[in-house]
Amino acid sequence: MKETTRFLCVLLIIGLTQSRHPSPDEAALDFIYKNMDDTANPCQDFQNFSSGNFEALHKEAKLYDLQDSIRDASTGKLQIVLEKLRDRVFIDESSAEGKALRFYETCLNTSPSRQLFFSFLELMPPGEDLPWPTSRLRGSRWPEERFEWLEALARLRRFGIENLLFRMNVVQDWVDPNHFVVYLKRPTYPTILDENSNKDILVGIGILKKNHPSINTLVADIMALDDDLQNLPPEESRSYTLSIEEFEDQTGIQLSKYLEISFGRPFDPSFEVKIVGMGYLEGLKAVIEKYTNKVVASYMIIGIVRSLIQQQLVLKTGSNHQVQCSTAVRRHMEVASEVLYKDYYFRQGRLQRYDRAVQQMFEVFRAAFLKRIEKNRLNLTAEEQTFVKQKLRAIKVRLGSLPNVPDQRRFVNDFYSDLELEKHPTNLAKILLNILEHRTRHTLKQLDRPTPKGNHFFRLEELGYILQTEPYYRTSNLVVVPYDILQEPYFSPDQHDVFKVSLLGFSMIRAVLENFKPYNMRFDNESNYSEFMENFGENFAYVEATNCLDRSKESSQLNEHAINVLALKLVYDTYFGEDSKFSQEQPSFTKLPLKQIFLLNFAQNLMYKWNTVRLNQAVRNLNDFGEVFNCPADAFLNPETKCEIW
Fold it and tell me: I need a surface site. Which of 71, 246, 467, 528 has the fewest CB within 10 A?
């Protein structure tokens, strides 16, 4: 087997030219080859065989998976656009590109410094004329008695710091996705790190000096507060709907005050909110009141600093300054970044070519899934089959996250019309907070609007800092294909079909199939809640299929595994089927068999080690996998029983 795998790697580079500008096919093949570890056995460890070298190759850049790779390439391309904007003689300063450029240049003119943390804290005070207890007080006594934790939390929320003490988000209602709701829950990641890290933050911010006799007591109290919060009841799966008045009665937390500060407007006591984790929220106030205001404020400061670092709001020394600044624009002005990126890289008919290639591929897969539904392996009734087919036919695929309106540039300019920036800003923290406050304001405003549908769908998300680079599903029967993945070596209309289908095709159909998970099956072809398929997860044939996947006992995420298994089978069988609409001609640029190219390229979607179980489940349930890689009958990834979904 070792000799075979080494031979395959040699075959990969046969036919590659020495051209400075490799063709789309050469670029895609080179991407596969560089990521492979030919010492691994594909029949036992396809993860390492297909992409085992990726992490080592990108260790310095801290790239771990395909999304990181795509994001890194897109950020570099956005940097080119921003640099070209700097060379332009005239730019309308009130436009989105003018404001994005102002942000970028302010960042370029700012040196990495700890002072940025102080600037952020000064510009986000916990109360009116009330500073945080940092060294900037210059010997003055901090008026601890005036500190109110809930007001401080609400003021931070206006800048998008939403994962501290409790979370409040505006999301699509999970029962009626046509409307937005206020959603409350416990934080999703810990605020506090180890004792030394907490001490370093407190000393760095100047709350106490390193050798101050009270420093150890303060750190101990902060960690005790965190322990008490962590020991509150865990988040249960059950959700609640309560009015503000009912919530306040049960928790003692003045939610009306918090929402009024966060949204900038009052709320009626009868206004209803959605809650997950009521036990945590019921115990929160009592825990906080056990500690002094200085302990609570210090705890929050540590959370702020961690949030600033996680959101990459502070510049790092020793890192490429231009890259950091283009990353900042991409993360925090993603609406402007998308239109700038699209208009530069998809002009002169290029967008239409890419869209046509993506839509044609999607239609082939939709037809293939319709055939599977008609075979009715899950023994659906005629009415249930009709329901599922209508859901599938209603799905649209769109390039980019922006709504499909005639003038996207105008839409983006209108979006940023109320973003006020200084004409010649010099304070990076101030311009960043202006941008974050603007973005948060628009995100929260979605509460007062119905959800746009179809290609007009547009939603701002609180976690927009984790930018999607692969196709993703939205509860408006929409699959968004980001522009990021529409670049070499990941995708090109000029690539051989084997590359297009195995990478983008798989990730696109996987996103489509999200709409057919048991939870999402309760929504009809217009995204309305329907009880008709509410019990789909109990369908005997579906349960049997997912139980088949569970035989490995490697993970409980059966619905996610089911999607990967079905998506791979669907694209693979569609590509290599007798009535295939795709080219099955052996490429002239390599002698590597087409089926091996397909599976190696597909595996890039799941290259990260955390995805090993998902990749294993997908390939070990593909009928051809063992034959394609000459696996013995007892190989781990070549079991006798293959699970079938749908």
Answer: 528
Q: What's the CATH number where 155 sits?
A: 1.10.1380.10
| Residues listed for the chain | 646
d(CA 387, CA 587): 41
* Sequence letter at residue 171: V
pLDDT digits (tens, 9 = 90+) for 66-86: 999 999 999 999 999 999 999
The whole-model pTM stands at 0.90
Residue 153 sits in the same domain as residue 241: yes
Q: Residue 300 is part of which domain span?
A: 115-310
Do 482 and 401 contact (CB within 8 A), yes or no? yes
pLDDT value for 551:
60
Q: Is the pLDDT of residue 608 over 60?
A: yes
Provide the number of structural domains found in the chain: 2
Q: pLDDT digit string (tens) for 124-165? A: 999 999 999 987 766 678 999 999 999 999 999 999 998 899
Quote the CA–CA distance of 356 and 247 in Å, as a whole number.
51
Query: How far apart (Å, rounded) are the C-alpha atoms in residues 469 and 490?
Result: 11
C-alpha span between 544 and 562 (Å, rounded): 11
Choose the final residue of a domain: 289, 310, 331: 310
Quickly state the pLDDT bin for 2 (edges 50, 70, 90): very low
* Selection from 282, 268, 308, 329 nearest residue 79 by Cα: 329
The three-state secondary structure class of 472 is strand
**pLDDT at residue 108 in the model:** 94
Over range 486-499, report the average pLDDT.
97
527 phi, psi to nearest 5 deg = 65, 20
- Closest to 300 (Cα-Cα) out of 422, 413, 150: 150
CA distance 530 to 524: 6
Distance separating alpha carbons of residues 167 and 287, to the nearest angstrom: 17
Calculate mean pLDDT across residues 607-614. 87
Tokens standing for residue 137: 């007080």
Beta-strand relationship, 239-243 and 272-276: antiparallel
Tokens encoding 610: 């955390």
Residue 9 — very low, low, confident or very high, per pLDDT cuts 50/70/90? very low
Q: Has residue 344 been placed in a domain?
A: no
pLDDT of residue 7 exceeding 50, the answer is no
Asked if residue 370 and residue 292 are part of one domain, the reply reads no
Is residue 150 located within the same domain as residue 297? yes
What's the maximum distance between 2 C-alpha atoms anywhere in the chain? 81
| Statement to judge: residues 417 and 522 lie in one domain | yes
* pLDDT score for 211: 77
> How many Cβ atoms are within 10 Å of 584's Cβ, its own excluded?
12
Average pLDDT over residues 335-340: 96
Q: Are residues 398 and 542 in the same domain?
A: yes
pLDDT at 504 over 70: yes
- Domain's final residue, options 287, 310, 333: 310
Q: How far apart are CA 411 and CA 528, in angstroms?
A: 27
CA 211 to chain centre: 42
Q: What is the mean pLDDT of the chain?
A: 90
Instruction: Summarize the confidence of residues 299-321 as an average pLDDT.
Output: 85
For residue 448, tell me if it sits in a domain: no
Q: Is residue 458 part of a domain?
A: no
Do 528 and 584 fall into the same domain? yes
* C-alpha of 430 from chain center: 26
Q: What is the CATH number of the domain that holds 368?
A: 3.40.390.10
Residues 16 and 122 in one domain: no
- Asked whether the beta carbons of 448 and 271 are under 8 A apart, the reply is no
Residue 83 lies in a domain: no
